[in-house]
Amino acid sequence: MDIQDATEHAINAWYSAEGLPEVKTDGAKTWGTFLPVGEPDKFKAACSERGVTYVQGLAQALTLWLDNHPSPTAPLVAQPVVRVIVANQKGGVGRHSCPPGSRKLSRRPAIVSCWSTTTRRGI
């Protein structure tokens, strides 16, 4: 899940949560993300109604989300990860290709990369 979606989910959970503790925000680094149209104003109004600053409300929302979605303790993919790189070398500028059948090297073709040593551009 990317930060934008996580923030949106966190804010939605914050709306229904009650009695959240104050979160220490001193020294926190700034960051930004996009929210759906109207959401920032709606959230600021809700923060005002609760008597917390916008920054505190956001800190509470994100802390709540992080508490409910801890980092996994096990790897998300089987190890070791296999990545197959197929390279070719052809003369001429801009000439590159993937050898026929190279995508069949994997059950999941997304892990196969073709690379041209002439153009230095991944395909």
Count of helical regions: 3
Q: Helix coverage percent of residues?
A: 25-40%
Oligomeric form: single chain
| Total individual domains | 2
Structural class: alpha+beta
Strand residues, percent: 5-15%
Parts with pLDDT < 50 across at least 5 consecutive residues: 116-123
The ordered string of helix (H) and strand (E) elements is HHHEEE
Shape: elongated
Essential attributes:
3 strands; alpha+beta; 123 residues; 3-stranded mixed beta sheet; elongated; 2 domains; 3 helices; disordered C terminus
Summary, kept brief:
By secondary structure, this protein is α+β, with helices and mostly antiparallel strands. The chain folds into 2 domains: 3-68, no CATH class; 84-122, no CATH class. It has helices at 3-16, 39-50, 54-68; strands at residues 84-88, 112-116, 121-122.
Question: Would you mind describing this structure in some detail?
Answer:
The protein is an alpha+beta fold and 123 residues long. It has two domains: 3-68, no CATH class; 84-122, no CATH class. 33% of the residues lie in helices and 10% in strands. Strands 1-2-3 form a three-stranded mixed beta sheet, with no helix packed on it. A hairpin with a 4-residue loop joins strand 2 (112-116) and strand 3 (121-122).
Furnish the topology, listing elements before pairings.
Elements: H1 3-16, H2 39-50, H3 54-68, E1 84-88, E2 112-116, E3 121-122
Parallel strand pairs: 1-2
Antiparallel strand pairs: 2-3
Helix pairs in contact: 1-3
